[in-house]
Every structure is written in C-alpha cells, then in structure tokens.
Write a structure and sequence with these properties.
Layout: E1 2-4, E2 7-9, H1 14-37, H2 60-63, E3 68-69, E4 77-85, E5 90-95, E6 98-104, E7 122-131, E8 139-147, E9 150-159, E10 176-177, H3 180-189, E11 194-199
Parallel strand pairs: 4-11, 9-10
Antiparallel strand pairs: 1-2, 3-9, 4-5, 5-6, 7-8, 7-11, 8-9
Length: 200
C-alpha cells in the first residue's frame, strides 16, 4: 500500500483481477459452446456460425464468426448473375443479362429465433455445389463473400428447405432458402463462380 496526505491509494488487486479474467474467459467459452450447440449443422458437418457476420460489431456473436480466405481463387463466371432482394425475399436469376427466373426465398429472420439472424448485404460468389438433406433440402450452393479486396469463404449459401411455408418472408438463420424444386434447378443451372448480390 502507498499513501498520500490524507488519502489512502491502494495497489490494484492484480490477483483478484486475474481470477476474474479467467472466470469470464471460461464463461465465454461455455456460452460459445451453448450457442453453437443450438445452431444447425451444415452439410459438410460444420456448425453454422457464418450467418452471424451481419450483426453489429460487438459482443460474442461477432467474435465467433468463421471467415477464412479461399485456399484457391474461384474464377467468376459471367454467364449467370443472381440478385437476392432481402427486403422482399425474392430472388432474380439472369442469364446473359436477361431475367430467366424469379422465385420467393427466405432470408435471415431477426425475430423468429432467440438470437436475431441476418442475411448480410453485398457481393458473393458460388464456390462449391454440394448435396445435402433435411433442413437444407437436396442441394447447398456455398458462397464466398467479397470483403476487403477479395473473396472469403463463409458458411452462408443458397439451399432448399423443409419449411416451404415460410418462403417469401424472413425465416432463415442467414442463408437463402429456396423451394426444393427451385434449388434443384439452380444446382443444375448455375456454375461455380456465379456472382450473387444481396440487396434491399
């Protein structure tokens, strides 16, 4: 303890502070695991953390997002172009500049779940086309997001649904859900490298 005239000034309780930091770290890990355990599992077996990335840049959910650079660049394919209007939950597919498909979709819901989910706005690219099942429908088209001068891999994608009654309104964890017949068409139609724009 150090003293000044008439006032006691104490050294910081560094040991107590250290234990508090450890305790908070453990609680944060438990919370991450608890949140992760309640999220859907993607076709590749990963936990679907990717849809959190549109949340405000603070708090736990921002720190657990998965954003990894692409191992190898995927060349853009300009023959097709997809626009998803997240405010209307409608998707437009263009081929050589001509509209060829318009379908209802479901994007992220801010109110359906305990945690708000959003579909981030921006430019994306299809980087893989995968078979899936269950809540993802028959196919999952994984997206990479344009960010800071390049595309980064995400766990957001275009996929089918086992809840077609919600198409046309927000209902997803951040991905873009389609009628299973539509995602089957898109799986056959859209090449890897197709650009997807999410707008409102």
């Amino acid at each position: 303890m150090t003293m000044t005239t008439g006032l006691g000034i104490y050294d910081p309780p560094s040991v107590i502070l250290m234990y508090w930091k450890i305790l908070l770290g453990v609680l944060e890990i438990i919370l991450v695991l608890a949140v992760g355990a309640s999220m859907p599992v993607l076709p590749g077996g990963e936990t679907d953390y990717g849809n959190f990335r549109a949340l405000p840049p603070q708090g736990l959910v921002e720190r657990i997002q998965i954003n990894s650079p692409l191992a190898a660049p995927v060349k853009e394919d300009a023959s097709f172009y997809v626009v998803v209007d997240v405010s209307e939950n409608v998707e437009y597919v263009y081929k050589n500049g001509q509209l060829i498909m318009k379908s209802p979709v479901s994007t992220g819901s801010a109110s359906r779940y305990k945690i708000p989910y959003y579909t981030p706005l921006g430019r994306w690219k299809i980087i893989s086309k995968e078979s899936s099942s269950g809540e993802y429908g028959p196919y999952f088209l994984r997206l990479a997001r344009w960010q800071e001068g390049g595309y980064v891999r995400t766990d957001i994608g275009l996929h089918g649904t086992n809840e077609p009654q919600f198409l046309g309104r927000p209902a997803s964890h951040g991905c873009i859900r389609h009628d299973n017949r539509v995602i089957t068409q898109l799986y056959k139609l859209l090449p890897v490298g197709t650009v997807v724009e999410t707008v409102e």
